[in-house]
Design brief:
Blueprint (H helix, E strand, L loop, with lengths): L1 H15 L3 H34 L5 H11 L4 H12 L14 H25 L5 H7 L4 H11 L1 H16 L3 H7 L9 H11 L2 H32 L2
Length: 234
């Protein structure tokens, strides 16, 4: 166990002095995750809200498919994107393989089903009287739906945070379409796998501590959001 304590001490030193390589890798991870989560929120929240309030044939099937997509393996998404972005693929001429854009696209595909499915649950769990009441007060259908979204805003925040947590710790997509290029597409998860395989245990531990810290913060925020929402209810 001595090597573990030595590694932890060296990792703590790297974090204390803000080692440039650790900071660079952490920045790439955060940048990719924030971009993909923002796009997933922009697409998933409206989609989930529309599914929740609309009535059409096949709605239960659509919601079921959305729920199934929440469990998509990251390597399957990575394989799908790789087949599209490789030189012989449909989008090969765009030259997006092994770029941050490809990583954002892959993480977006992972996060959007989760955000949309959680939005469906949040909106369906709202007071069913919100929209009829808003309509009787003269609100347009669009305004009434915005009122409903305002009522469940904290649940929507939790959905977006869950999407962030889903993609921040993934490795399959980032490795397959990002290429783990140092200073460009190397993220916390791909770097941990690489550095540990090389025997650079201290660096891997330092990156793991950062990864764990951010994951705990996000999960803690998800747990606190409902309490904040409850505290604001009259």
């Amino acid at each position: 166990m001595e090597y573990l304590w030595d590694g932890l001490r060296e990792a703590a030193g790297m974090l204390w002095r803000l080692d440039p390589e650790v900071c660079s890798i952490a920045w790439v991870s955060l940048k990719v995750t924030f971009l993909s989560t923002a796009l997933a929120a922009a697409a998933g929240v409206p989609l989930g809200a529309w599914l929740a309030v609309s009535q059409f044939r096949g709605k239960r099937v659509a919601v079921g498919i959305l729920n199934a997509l929440m469990a998509l393996p990251t390597v399957v998404v990575g394989l799908f994107l790789y087949s599209l972005l490789t030189r012989r693929g449909l989008l090969g001429p765009l030259g997006l393989l092994y770029t941050v854009t490809a990583m954002v696209a892959g993480q977006f595909l992972l996060a959007v089903p989760l955000v949309a499915a959680m939005t469906v649950g949040v909106v369906q769990g709202a007071d069913p009287r919100v929209i009829p009441t808003a309509r009787t007060l003269g609100a347009s259908p669009w305004r009434a739906r915005l009122t409903l979204m305002g009522e469940v805003r904290w649940g929507l925040v939790a959905a977006v945070l869950a999407g962030f947590g889903r993609v921040f710790g993934e490795v399959g997509v980032s490795m397959m379409v990002g290429g783990n290029i140092r200073g460009y597409t190397r993220t916390l998860t791909t770097a941990i796998a690489l550095q540990t395989g090389r025997g650079e245990f201290a660096l891997g531990l330092a990156l793991g501590i950062v990864l764990l810290g951010v994951a705990l913060l996000v999960n803690g925020a998800v747990q606190l959001v409902p309490r904040g929402a409850a505290g604001r209810e009259p």
